[in-house]
Amino acid sequence: INHLVELYEAWGKPEKAEEWRAKLPGKESTEKQ
User: What is the pLDDT along the chain (33 residues), one digit of tens a residue?
Assistant: First the structure.
């Protein structure tokens, strides 16, 4: 799912990326940053 978030950001859809990020467990969403 993290790849989806990155794809949405690359497509210029940060709002969608945030939507997916909200569905992830907190640990996983901060790992990439």
Answer: 678 778 767 878 878 878 877 887 665 545 555
